[in-house]
Amino acid sequence: MEAKEFFGKFASGFLWGNILAMVLVVVALAFGVKYGLDAYTHHGEFVEVPKIEGMVYERARALIEERGLNLMVTDSGYNKRLPANSILVQNPGSGLKVKEGHTIYVTVNSPSSPSFAIPDVIDNSSFREAEAKLTAIGFKLQPPQQVEGEKDWVYGILCRGRRVSTGDRISIDSPLTLLIGNGHYGADVDVDYIEPEYKMPQQGEVDEFEEVVE
To answer: pLDDT tens, 41-70?
Structure first.
């Protein structure tokens, strides 16, 4: 093939038409991908998260769905000052901007107070140790009652006037009263000392304590 013929092909309208068509296809694909992804991911579109803490779940869910968002319960807690099934915590928090379709995770208020088992503190710990363990769980303690015994030693627990035992499940709203020793004991019991009787051996008998010499 001569050089003139070779370079003549580049002057062909058919070749340049194909090249132009490929360029247009590449440009169209690039713009299609860019704007398609923006549309798919809602690029530049944000929704402000409303404040739903304290709201009853049904009302909060309706408000969230009106904004194009989703609501999901992930945990429960207890706050006696709020109605049952109300929102205690939300994540993300109110005022933040998220994309449409984002999920808001919430903790709802339990309809009843939780109960916990009484730990092994009865006759096994001092007042300070028992107080620390019980308050760490969440129990509320009333002023302790003193009983006879070793000072500040825990001898029992009262709940609404009733004795409870280790392992009993008690509502967190029920106050507890510790029975602790006052350092005093009851009056000592008199013990009568009785002299042992010593019986003289009769004739022919040998005292069991007497050494017999052969």
So the answer is: 555 578 999 999 999 999 999 999 999 999
Q: What's at 208, amino acid-wise?
A: E
- The Cα 9–Cα 109 span in angstroms is 79
User: Could you tell me the pTM of the whole model?
Assistant: 0.50
- Tokens 């993300």: give the residue: 92
Q: In this structure, what DSSP letter does residue 122 have?
A: T
Distances (CA, A) of 54 to 91, 92, 116, 143: 14, 15, 25, 33
pLDDT in tens, 139-181: 999 999 999 999 999 999 999 999 999 999 999 889 999 999 9
d(CA 212, CA 214): 6
Do residues 70 and 102 make contact, with C-beta atoms less than 8 angstroms apart?
yes
Q: How many other β-carbons are positioned within 10 Å of the β-carbon of residue 154?
A: 24
Three-state SS for 5-31 is HHHHHHCCHHHHHHHHHHHHHHHHHHH
| b/e code 165-196 from CB counts within 10 Å (16+ = b) | eeeeebeeeeebbbbbbeeeeeeeeeeeeeee
Return phi, psi of residue 153, to 5°: -90, 135
